[in-house]
């Protein structure tokens, strides 16, 4: 790799030229990393719903042409000025949010919402100089959430890169850089169920099953999965889900059904859909006196959460979380170690694999609702 240090690298990338159109494999130039940046060789990436959402660009403005992708693993190819804690050859996970280690959020033990590097879906350039590191024949190609992993090489701010155990299999741990960790941390770090407790999980996609995995690891005795799609129920049993509810099968609100099933409500709930009605149900289904509900899903920008204040006064707690309250650089390496120690099972999240040149197949699978995570081998 050393021969490329300081040079522009030409490599293959999957470029989204316009909303909803298949990605095109192009030869792109990737500039060297600037101050506090690193250039990574991406070895594995996977498709997350966030990529699909911004590719479709139905509900928000999206910048094009753009290189999407943010769930990935790779190796450091070179580092820019001022980078001291990463070196060429390090095994890493790039992350869509960051940890500068200097701001009030990074210095707080309670927050992971870095002031400098928290997710910004609108920004298509690097924060150092407001320019892109990708180009085709001199024309800029924009970045996505600071990662752009649908490229054989990418440039990322050092604060958005977690250095991990070099023995960890990169084709498995790549899924930890977004959805699985978000759900897992929502349960383990925020809901914090105790051994023998009951937990309701709303939404049984990859994030929800990450939350269920957290409940399983915490020793919950009842894990109730709530989803409108009953075809997800069988798969969810692998993640420790013990009972299932489809709200469409009941005449009364699902929170009332759960309260009846659990003698007043579950001890903890984790909402992973982004649907505001599911959020309200997740809050109202926890037990008074000690119940804690955690919101993970991102709602529609105009959504409003409505519940009676007595639900709070009766000692229910409502919390929100971002990326499972994990600080990317400080905490993700220990999540990788959970996998290495065989506590956390990642293989069951990975349902498909495609070569990079067939990346559009991954989009087709997700659009059909098939599987959980599709690994894209670069």
Automatic annotation (TrEMBL):
Its main location: cytoplasm. It comes from the Eukaryota. GO terms for cellular component: cytosol. Its cofactor is Zn(2+). Signal peptide: none annotated. The keyword Ligase does not apply. Residues 206-338 form the Alcohol dehydrogenase-like C-terminal domain. InterPro entries: ADH-like_C, ADH-like_N, ADH_Zn_CS, GroES-like_sf, NAD(P)-bd_dom_sf. It catalyses: a secondary alcohol + NAD(+) = a ketone + NADH + H(+); a primary alcohol + NAD(+) = an aldehyde + NADH + H(+). GO terms for biological process: formaldehyde catabolic process. It is found in: Cytoplasm. Its EC number is 1.1.1.1. PROSITE patterns: ADH_ZINC (PS00059). Belongs to the zinc-containing alcohol dehydrogenase family. This is alcohol dehydrogenase. It comes from Olea europaea subsp. europaea.
């Amino acid at each position: 790799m050393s021969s490329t240090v300081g040079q522009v690298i030409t490599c293959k990338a999957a470029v989204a030229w316009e909303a909803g159109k298949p990605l095109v494999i192009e030869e792109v130039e990737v500039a060297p990393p600037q101050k506090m940046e690193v250039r990574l060789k991406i070895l594995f990436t996977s498709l997350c719903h966030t990529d699909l959402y911004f590719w479709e660009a139905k509900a928000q403005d999206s910048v094009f042409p753009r290189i999407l992708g943010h769930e990935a693993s790779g190796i450091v190819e070179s580092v820019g000025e001022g980078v001291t804690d990463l070196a060429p050859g390090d095994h890493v996970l790039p992350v869509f949010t960051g940890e500068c280690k200097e701001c009030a959020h990074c210095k707080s033990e309670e927050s992971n919402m870095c002031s400098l590097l928290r997710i910004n879906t609108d920004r298509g350039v690097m924060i150092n100089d407001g320019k892109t590191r990708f180009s085709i024949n001199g024309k800029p190609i924009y970045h996505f959430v600071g990662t752009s992993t649908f490229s054989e090489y990418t440039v990322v701010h050092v604060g958005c890169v977690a250095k991990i155990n070099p023995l960890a299999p990169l084709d498995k741990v790549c899924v930890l850089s977004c959805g699985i960790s978000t759900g897992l941390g929502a349960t383990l770090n925020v809901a914090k169920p105790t051994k023998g407790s009951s937990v309701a999980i709303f939404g049984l996609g990859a994030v929800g099953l990450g939350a269920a995995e957290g409940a399983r690891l915490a020793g919950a005795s009842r894990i109730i999965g709530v989803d409108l799609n009953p075809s997800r129920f069988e798969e969810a049993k692998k993640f420790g889900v013990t009972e299932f509810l489809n709200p469409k099968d009941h005449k009364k609100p699902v929170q009332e059904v759960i309260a009846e099933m659990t003698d007043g409500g579950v001890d903890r709930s984790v909402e992973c859909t982004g649907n505001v009605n599911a959020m309200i149900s997740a809050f109202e289904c926890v037990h008074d006196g000690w119940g804690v509900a955690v919101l993970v899903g991102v709602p529609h920008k105009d959504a409003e959460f409505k519940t009676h204040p007595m639900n709070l006064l009766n000692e229910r707690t409502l919390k929100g979380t971002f990326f499972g309250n994990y600080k990317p650089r400080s905490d993700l390496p220990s999540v990788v170690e959970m996998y290495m120690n065989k506590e956390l099972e990642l293989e069951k999240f990975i349902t498909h694999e495609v070569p990079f040149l067939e990346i559009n197949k991954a989009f087709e699978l997700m659009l059909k609702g098939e599987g959980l995570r599709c690994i894209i081998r670069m």
